[in-house]
Amino acid sequence: MALLSARGVTHRFGGLAAVSSFAIDVDQDELVGIIGPNGAGKTTVFNLVTGIYRPTEGEMSFGGRSIVGLRPNQIAGLGIARTFQNIRLFKDLSVLDNVRVAHYADAKYGPFEAMWRLGRLDREEERISERSLELLTLFKLESLALSPARSLPYGFQRRLEMARALALRPKLLLLDEPAAGMNRAETLELMDFIRWVKREFSLTILLIEHQMDLVMGICERLVVLDFGITIATGRPEEIRRNPKVLESYLGQEVHGAHG
Fold this sequence. Notes:
Shape: globular
Low-confidence stretches: 254-259
Strand order of the largest sheet: 6-7-8-3-9-10
Number of strands: 10
Strand content: 15-25%
Distance between the termini: 37 Å
Order of helices and strands: EEEHEEHEHHHHEHEHEEHHH
């Protein structure tokens, strides 16, 4: 059984179909990429998976359970986390507090205990801080724990956003253009980092990306969208040779991704 499965998923904004009859199976431990030009429907797919949008038609399931109609927090609770194309950190909070915030999804105390600082509150706060620092250490951000998130260099902000997503202990991580704004050297470093994250946290990863070096270098399979329609699926080397893909938008960029 696929970890994430979609069948016949369509989403319309008024009369415009942003995604049409989308289908995908993502198996446990896979790293799958969704590619396509701007406006192809890639981020709409992520918004459908995470419950920001509800499909106009079709079915989506995670771990064998339908997720259509569930709220974003319910879907996150099942084990799906994401990052965003435009980094969405709490920039005035510290690096540590950005990760601590995500841990509150499974905090083991209620509003009454929080208001009066009773019962498990102190123990839970200590546990959350310890787990957050452990994540920051793994991501080599521990020395910046008390710095405001806005003070981090761009690449470190990307790392922090990923660390915050992993605080939810997901089974599936959605990465929306993780290499956006990075140069070639930074992109190559990010490739190694994503491989490490996948291995270290035993994750399944679904990513959207425009940088072909990254896509062709780390994805096991690719789904290609154009105007909301899936025009090709397959291994990276198959996609590089696919006439429909070349004709639609990638052209020489695919041929030249690895020389």
